[in-house]
Each structure stands twice: as structure tokens, then as C-alpha cells.
């Protein structure tokens, strides 16, 4: 019997014997033999004998039976263990708090009483009455779940300063349109309305100006007649104007800061500007720091905004005693956790001084909350409580895994469709959806501003050709009046802030049928009448998809999402859906050439006009 190594040598060298390489086992053997339990005999005896008593060693064969040269017995063939499941890998190393998340059924709700003084929601009668005026009679799942954490029945825990018993932070993952905004607006208004002096106590950070405007409107609506001052900072107005809105006292520099507002809603860039350059702008009195669209904001660095905000809210060490100024008191008020900075204290800690912490409670929200441990660490969360509003699974681990593996929950009332076609007829597919399927009150997403402009122009030329009766009108599968011209407008970063606002207003008033945009408004924007979302260009990842389609089917309303997929993109798009567990939820829509036939002529005419238009616009 030949060993495999010997067979191999024969195969390569034609039988010529080469000196055998010194193997590791040869070196180890004498040492092992020194110990009786590791001696050759005892090792061999562990192998199972064959029927005739000879030991079968499949790798060393006869050599193993002879005492010389000494060698170790064979080990079993190396076999790789089966690869761990993706789910197993995903759960490894996740934040402990996330693993203990509170899973909430999206169907959960809480009916509000508008007469009783006390209500288990924790909301005051004033707030509930205001909600009734706004047409809100019940709390949605995310609001029902979060209020006990932010408005505890123990009123002391609602105090504006909790330096010795600081509140736990809260992270929320809930589907688009599920009411996350009110989930933080309500407890903030309720808690702050007990305040006597105006200080900056709630800071809400959002990724875009449009969202700042929207959230400010929500605060103003709910907080009406509660005496709280609300401001926003986005850079839309001059810096000096914003400073005048935010700060009462410009000089001298007050250690406790000075604020004209209780609640500030802002973008991170502008927040940094005020933190650096606005005298007396301080975050030491913050009771709430809300990071909405948290995954998007944490992906953006903006001069390391998060680290700077956290540092500004955190008590700083006491200055050395000899630097503490004496003299007349300032009209000043330090937060309790910052009192050691006062000119009246020595700055020397004694045994009875307990460690004081910032009272700022961080609240994170997103429909696509990240689980990246690195990013979460950067938030310096305090004993965080996770709330996941998640349909389908009652199994806690599965629910947490869905967040970790980016299988985000979608609104139950959303219907998803995909249409596959060649790139050359993609615009025709959109015309088909609008004219045959009655797609109106729709947001159409493209991949870029340029793509938005081209599509809007092409649609306009198409409508001009249609109005001129250049093609027979086809029988539509819709009740929509297709004889009416379809109004299409662009919403892009090329427009001025005023133009964008005006366009959005017109769309809200239903004066625009199709609003074409890049991903500028794919997150957070809440327009209740959006019935359809069309992804004219496929979204590049699942997060984008979730936020785009989430512009419809909000607050329990119905909605349809259509994705136009070019043939070469189909594989990638389907794979993306499959990985996110959405493949079976998306209906494939087949459109035959015959169904498109009636619009072909108009399309050709529109394309020709578009070419002429761009030739005029950009002469060579
Ligand atoms: N309890 C409620 N009753 C009725 N309508 C509500 C309630 N809560 C919120 N809404 C409405 O639901 C809509 C969606 O809410 P909101 O914009 O807060 O969703 P969201 O979860 O933040 O979505 P996104 O993730 O897309 O930002 C809004 O028009 C809001 O006014």
C-alpha cells in the first residue's frame, strides 16, 4: 500500500524517489513520546482495529504500522463546517439593547379620550383637545408604544432637569407614514409646557430644509396656545436674522446661555454654524435631542456634527479654582449639571458631590434604522430602549433580525408593482401608466436632476402632441378623464427655495398631476393625497426603495408603487427585493407591444421635439 504522498511523487516524477521533506509531525513526535499518555502506542490504540486486528490508517498506511520513521497517526480529512446562516452572522455582535428591542404590532392603537382629565396615554386634556381639533382621535402604534417611555406616570421623571437620574435614550424603527413625527412632537410639547423660563430645551435635527419646514408645522399645530417658542434654522435666511431669532442677549457671554426659543428644528450644517459663531447659543439645557431620519443623518459627517452636539450637551469639567472669576453676578442661569462652572462655586468636588449628567434624552427615528454597531457607539446612547414597529413576525429574534438584515417593514396598505422593459421604451411605459392605468397624484422619482428635466420636457412634448390629436386616443383601463391634459412639473435642486415651495403647494392643491423629482424628497415628505409613486429609474438600494415607495400609503391610506426596471437591471433589482424579503410582495406587470401601440406615434413625435429642443439649448 502506498501513501498518497508517495503516489503523488510517482505521478509527478515518474517514480524517481526524491528526499522526503522534513514534516512538522517528524519534529513534534519525540516530544510527544516523552509523555506516556501521548506515546505512539497509546495514540494508535485509539484507532479502531479492523477485523484481522490490523489498524487501518488511510493516510499513512504501512508506515504507520512500522515504528520507524516515527510519525503521528492520521487526522481525519479536513472538512469545512457548513457556513453559518446569514441570519446567524447578522445577529452576532449586535447591540445588546437592540437584541432586547420592544416589538410592536402596527395594528396597535390607543383611543384618546377628549373629556377625561386623566388618560392612560399620559397626555394632558389640553393636548388631547388640541389633537381632536386636528382630527386625531387615536394614537398610532409607534405613538402608543413610545409615550409611556417619554411621559412616565411618575411626574418627577418628566422634570426638565434630571442630573442625578437621567432618562434613557430611545431608538425607533417604524414604517414610513406610521406617525413617527407626532411620536416625538407630543411628548416634547407636553413636557416643555411646564417650563417657566424659555431655554433651548428641544433640538430636532433633520436632513433637509423641506423636512424642517414640515416638522415645524407639526410642532406649531400641536403646540398652539401652549406658550412655547418654536424656531427653525436651515440657512434659508441670513445668519444674522437667524441669530436674532434665537438669542436674546448677545453680550456679555453668559455661561448659562440665552435663548428666545424652547424648540429648535434645524439641519446639521446650520446647527454647526450657530454652535460655533452665535454667542450665548448653548445646548446645556437640552432635555430632548431628536435625530429624525437617523440613518441618513449619521451617514453624513457635516463637520462631525454629532460629536460636536454631544460634546456641547455634556457637562464640561470644572475649571481650575484659581481661574474662577469673582465679582458681581451675571444675569445667568446654568443647568444643574453645569453648576460647577459658576463663579460662586470653588470648582473643587467633595465626597458629597454626586456625578451629574446631562438631562438630554436622545430620540432616534427612522423607517430604516441602522444597526451598525460603530455608528450606534458614536451616539453615546444611555441605556437605550429600542422600539421596532414590525409586521408579520411575532418572534422577537426574527423581528430584530429583520432590522439588522435591512428587511424593513412596509405599510400594510401599500401595493407594489414592477414593469420590466427595454430602456428605449421606458418613457412609453410611464405614458401607459398615466393614460391607461390612471396614475395621477403621483410622485415620479428619477436618478438625477438632469434626468428629471428631460423626462418633464418629454412629457410636455407628448402632451402637446396628444392635445393636437396626432394619434387616436386609446381605450383606457381607467376612470381617469384622459381627454384632460396631464400636468407634469419638476421638483429639483435647480429651483430656488421659493419656486420649490410654490411647486409643492400646487401639487398639494392637486394642480399638478405628476411631480417628477430626484431623491431630494424621497425621505420624510408627507403629502397625504399621493396615491402613486413611480420609480422611473430603479432605486440604488433597499433603503432608497423603502423611502420612495413610502411617500404613498401613509397613515393607513391605500397607495400603489410602480418600479420601471430596464431589462439589464432586472436581475439586480429582483435580487435586492429577494434579500429584503420583498420579492413575493411585488407584482410583475406585463405590458404587451399591442397595449403600447396607440401611444407609439405620439412618443416618436415627442422624442423628435425633445432632440430639437436640446439641439437648440446646447448649440455645438
Ligand atoms: N394618530 C394619528 N391619527 C391620524 N393621523 C396621524 C396620526 N399620527 C400621524 N398621523 C398622520 O400620518 C401622516 C404620516 O405621519 P409622519 O409624517 O409622522 O410619518 P413618518 O412615520 O414620520 O413617515 P416617514 O418615515 O416617511 O417620515 C401624517 O400626515 C400625520 O399627520
From TrEMBL:
Superkingdom per UniProt: Eukaryota
Keywords: Hydrolase
Name of the featured protein: P-loop containing nucleoside triphosphate hydrolase protein
Organism of provenance: Vararia minispora EC-137
Lineage of origin: Eukaryota, Fungi, Dikarya, Basidiomycota, Agaricomycotina
